């Protein structure tokens, strides 16, 4: 399908799922340059009118008869494997919402199916397209902080009623796992975690994670659905200061280590840091979901892009499972890494 679509003026896209995230995808696909939203699949129909007049179908078989060049999978996580395997068998490239699947083996089967079919596939870890995190990553790559000591993320807020089939680790903490490996270029060497169950649901609604990355730096993640405060913050601390990305506002600030000369002999041996200059960078702020869709559209057209690959999505699911194993075991565990 990719070859056939390359000569057309517009790609035909299909969307599976019209839940809260699916409706956002429908909005983007309805106005994405070079793309036509051809049809939507959702057995529950379209009570919110999100499909904007395109056909709403009950099954993937009907979607295949419509003819699509690629699909966006935004159905519940436990259906990702079933839907993705059918798309791969039909030769349809897919952008699959994060997490890639509800457990590691399902994620592996998805990777295998798309790789065997030589099809483009990507995972919707949209934080990689946030302007603040992209600028943070560029500055780390440029050596602005020198050696990185620690990555801290805080991702908290009220419970989203759209989520029913996974807990906070696989729904939200997968963002932090993915972005940490992406901005640092490091893998997780080990993780230790504690979870909390307070909402009466079968899945955890709070997690605190301490991880060690392969270069020896530390990662800390606080993620929950129990806070009235909505917060999405990433702090990277290194030998020259720290960078703070607020992904709700797409702001990036730099706090430099200060250097204040002292004549006090007793303090001269202190090797800590002091407060220095603080700079908030001016960034061009484009919607991350739009940027993600543009990247996958270009991937389908055979262009080089920086989408999150299915294999990277598998790695994130496996680290998330290690977090849950650690919480159950009450101690640190090494994640299963992907070659």
TrEMBL record:
<feature type="domain" description="GFO/IDH/MocA-like oxidoreductase">
    <location>
        <begin position="134"/>
        <end position="243"/>
    </location>
</feature>
<dbReference type="InterPro" id="IPR000683">
    <property type="entry name" value="Gfo/Idh/MocA-like_OxRdtase_N"/>
</dbReference>
<dbReference type="InterPro" id="IPR036291">
    <property type="entry name" value="NAD(P)-bd_dom_sf"/>
</dbReference>
<dbReference type="Pfam" id="PF01408">
    <property type="entry name" value="GFO_IDH_MocA"/>
</dbReference>
<dbReference type="InterPro" id="IPR055170">
    <property type="entry name" value="GFO_IDH_MocA-like_dom"/>
</dbReference>
<dbReference type="GO" id="GO:0000166">
    <property type="term" value="F:nucleotide binding"/>
</dbReference>
<feature type="domain" description="Gfo/Idh/MocA-like oxidoreductase N-terminal">
    <location>
        <begin position="12"/>
        <end position="116"/>
    </location>
</feature>
<dbReference type="Pfam" id="PF22725">
    <property type="entry name" value="GFO_IDH_MocA_C3"/>
</dbReference>
<protein>
    <submittedName>
        <fullName>Putative dehydrogenase</fullName>
    </submittedName>
</protein>
<dbReference type="InterPro" id="IPR051450">
    <property type="entry name" value="Gfo/Idh/MocA_Oxidoreductases"/>
</dbReference>
């Amino acid at each position: 399908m990719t070859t056939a679509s390359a000569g057309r003026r517009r790609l035909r896209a299909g969307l599976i799922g019209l839940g809260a995230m699916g409706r956002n995808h429908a909005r983007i696909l309805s106005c994405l340059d070079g793309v036509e939203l051809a049809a939507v699949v959702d057995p529950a129909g379209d009570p919110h009118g999100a499909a904007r007049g395109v056909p709403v179908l009950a099954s993937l078989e009907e979607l295949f008869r419509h003819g699509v060049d690629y699909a966006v999978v935004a159905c519940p996580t436990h259906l990702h494997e079933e839907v993705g395997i059918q798309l791969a068998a039909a030769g349809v490239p897919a952008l699959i919402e994060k997490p890639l699947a509800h457990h590691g083996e399902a994620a592996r089967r998805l990777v295998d199916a798309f790789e065997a079919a030589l099809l483009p596939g990507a995972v919707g870890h949209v934080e990689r397209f946030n302007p603040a995190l992209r600028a943070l990553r560029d500055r780390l790559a440029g050596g602005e902080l020198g050696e990185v000591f620690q990555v801290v993320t805080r991702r908290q807020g009220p419970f989203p009623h759209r989520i029913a089939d996974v807990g906070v680790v696989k729904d939200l903490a997968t963002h932090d796992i993915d972005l940490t490996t992406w901005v640092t270029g490091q893998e997780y060497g080990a993780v230790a975690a504690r979870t909390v169950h307070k909402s009466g649901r079968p899945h955890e609604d709070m997690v605190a994670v301490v991880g060690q990355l392969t270069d020896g730096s530390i990662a800390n993640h606080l993620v929950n659905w129990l806070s009235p405060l909505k917060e999405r913050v990433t702090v990277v601390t290194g030998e020259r200061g720290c960078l703070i990305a607020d992904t709700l506002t797409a702001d990036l600030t730099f706090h430099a280590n200060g250097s204040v000369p002292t004549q006090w002999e007793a303090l001269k041996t202190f090797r800590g840091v002091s407060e220095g200059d603080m700079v908030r960078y001016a960034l061009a702020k484009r919607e991350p979901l739009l940027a993600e869709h543009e990247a996958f559209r270009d991937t389908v057209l055979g262009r080089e892009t920086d989408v999150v690959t299915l294999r990277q999505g598998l790695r994130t699911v496996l680290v998330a499972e290690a977090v849950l194993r650690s919480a159950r075991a009450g101690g640190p565990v090494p994640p299963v890494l992907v070659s």
